[in-house]
Amino acid sequence: MSEFNDASPEFLDTEALSDHPQFASTLAHGLAVLGCFAGAGTTLGNKDIAERLGMTRPTVSRLTFTLMGLGYLRRDRSGKYSLGLAVLTLGYPLLSQMTIRQMAAPEMMELAQYARGPVSIGTRDRLQVVYVETVQGREVSSNKPDIGSTRPFLRSAIGRALLYALDPRERTMVLERLREAQPDDWAKYRVPMELAQRQIAEQGFCVVEGEWSPSYSGVGVPLRQPVHGMPMALNLTVPAYATDREHLEKNLGPRLVSLVRNIESKLGSEAA
Fold this sequence. Notes:
Helices cover 50% and strands 16% of the residues. By secondary structure, it is of the alpha+beta class. Helix 3 (46-53) crosses helix 4 and helix 6 runs antiparallel to helix 10. The longest helix is centred in the last third of the chain and has 27 residues, at 245-271.
């Protein structure tokens, strides 16, 4: 069973969370500053950050000073900031405990080379999927998701597979929050998402063609038990021009299911 508490603050909406007596606003503001640097190669000044977050420049200046002193930001000669290396040291312990990454890598590489597309592992970060590993074969893909990159739940193969992997109570809470927070996506993709849940129940995988991106198709497979206390799923993504529905359903989907079952077997042996 995954470690899930339906009273978790991550399921409070923004207003309810910020009004909670245990909410630490200064910490939240500091993390919001770091969140401004999510784009690759992003550099921002205090004015840029203040405008993005709706904060005063003196407040932002105090936050960036503190974050720079702790190593989470660094400043260039122009006075603008970018992420510092302490961000890596913060995330490394979490990644290092995920032994599934090393265990699954050889088979992920074999499938990636066969399919000519990246194979990835993802888990849940609030209302999105976050990738914790990606393996790519000799084919270079602009779609290769780096560790830490995210995908939407409702319209991606890995998102729909991960929804299936969630504890039923957790799934109910996530779906409710998605309905509230992403009403447009909910209206457009709820039915395909529900069809994907049935496809996984029947075949072990789901197929997405062009719903996350018109240029790519993918298959997703959930792990049947949490790993390191976290629900996880795998996906395989290939260019839409290089495949069709039959190839996804008759070939790539079953191959990814076989890969996941082998991983589950290895994890079971490791735990025994």
